[in-house]
Structures are given as C-alpha cells and as structure tokens.
Amino acid sequence: MMEYSLREYRDSDYAVVHEVYSTGFREHSRAIFVMVLRRLRVQAVLFAVFLALLELSGSLLTAMLGVSGGLLAIRVSVQCLLEQGVRLGLSEDLQNIRASYMDPSRVARFWVAEVQGILVGTVAILPCVEERGAWELKRITVLKRSRGRGIGKALCQTAMEFAANHGVERVVLFTSMAQSDAHRLYDSLGFKKETEFVWPSLPARLVNFLVYKYAYKVGVRTEQMLISY
Ligand SMILES: CC(C)(COP(=O)(O)OP(=O)(O)OC[C@H]1O[C@@H](n2cnc3c(N)ncnc32)[C@H](O)[C@@H]1OP(=O)(O)O)[C@@H](O)C(=O)NCCC(=O)NCCS
C-alpha cells in the first residue's frame, strides 16, 4: 500500500498544481473523441458526407478525404474545447490560489496529496458561484501513477469534512461526460447526478459536450464519508 499524506496548499506548490490540473484535464481528449464518434448522428453525418462526395466527384479517394476532413474537424474541436477548459481554470481560482482559497478572510480551502514528498493530487472547496448557499468541490485530480489507492477519495473526504465543520448543507461539483473514473469516485462518496447541460462554448456545442452537475447533502453522513487515511 502506497503511503500518502494530505496537507494544505503552500505557495511553493503553485507550478506543480497548475501542471497536475492541466495534465488531468487534457487526458480526456481521446475519450471525448471516441464518445463523439460513437454518436449515431455523427456517424450518419460522416456517412452522408461520404455518399455526397462520392456522388458528386465519382471518386472514392475524394469521398474518403472528405470523411477524414470531418474526423479532423471533430478532433480539432475536442482539442480546442480542452484547451479552453484549461485556460479557464488557470485564469479563474487557480490564477491566485492563495487569494482564492487560503486567505483567512475567505472560507475556502485547497489541499494537496503527497507521496514521498512529491505532490500527486489536489482538491479544493469554496462557496459555489452558480448556486447560492451551496459549496463547490473543485480541482480534483490525482496523477495517473498514484491512482486507485484511495487518494482521490481521501482528498474529497477532507474537503467534505471541512464543509460539514462549517455548517454547509449542500456540496455540488461539475464534471464532464468523459470523466468516468471521477463519476465512480463521486458515486462511491454518495454524490448524486442532478442535471446535465451542454458546455456553453462553440467547440462544445459542435461536439455536444455535456457537463454533469452532482450534489451531496451534507449531514447524510454515510460510512464512506468517514476519513480513513
Ligand atoms: C477521478 C480521480 C481523481 C480518482 O482518483 P483516485 O485516487 O484514483 O481515486 P480513488 O483511488 O480514491 O478511488 C475512489 C473511488 O472511485 C473508484 N474508482 C476510481 N477510479 C476508478 C477506476 N478507474 N475504475 C473503477 N473504479 C474507480 C474506486 O473504486 C473508489 O471507490 P471505492 O472506494 O468505493 O472502491 C482520478 O482518476 C483523476 O485524477 N482523474 C483525472 C482528472 C479528473 O477527471 N478529475 C475530475 C474532475 S471533475
């Protein structure tokens, strides 16, 4: 069993936290691409492009090039979407982590997980902008090499305990359709999926990129909520 420890964020973590966040966000590129290609509507459009080009040009090569162009356009849209997401995160709360989370005048917090002194994971919690009264769990990432050992769960439980100690009744989080490992983590913590919507950006609309909102009612303390690290 890999030994790990959790602690609050320090300014010296800044660059590594940015790196961990960006890497975790970008890793879903392939999964999103595959999810988009699995949609019947996308397959139908690509097939229609193929048939139309074949009919118009009489050339199989042209028809195949047309479909390749369509695939490339989807791939580029997915990349743009992920880069938008990374830029957004880095320009919001992560731009000044101390001010966003660790300022004593704000009730919010940022934690990191370490293995042998190396930062391998992050989580944060703060009052939710989109929903008054609720708090939002954010920036949950564990480096690939340290996954599946309970670190993500321990990070989330620490944040949830912090919320409970501050009298918070409802914790929400936003996750994307591609983050299936995270969905399992949230399920195991007792979160419930409430709504889904298309992320409001052009590349997201192009690939129908869904964001899910999960919520947890603090106070309904389940066995899983007991910190076990
Ligand atoms: C989501 C993430 C943080 C999970 O971290 P982790 O340290 O591997 O999670 P844990 O080991 O604590 O697992 C927590 C729970 O989720 C389940 N889980 C996590 N990854 C899983 C996987 N790949 N397959 C099956 N179950 C999984 C575990 O079974 C565990 O549940 P249990 O305790 O009831 O058995 C990690 O996969 C990650 O960083 N992903 C990329 C970034 C991301 O998507 N972040 C979410 C942003 S919304």
From TrEMBL:
SUPFAM superfamilies with a match to the protein in the record: Acyl-CoA N-acyltransferases (Nat)
Gene Ontology molecular function: any one: N-acetyltransferase activity
Keywords: Membrane, Transferase, Transmembrane, Transmembrane helix
Domain N-acetyltransferase intervals: 72-216
Keyword Chloroplast found: no
UniProt-listed InterPro entries: Acyl_CoA_acyltransferase, GNAT_dom, NAT_camello-type
Coiled-coil stretches noted in the UniProt entry, renumbered to this chain: none
Keyword Phosphoprotein: no
TM region positions: 44-67
Protein's UniProt name: N-acetyltransferase domain-containing protein
Source species: Alosa alosa (allis shad)
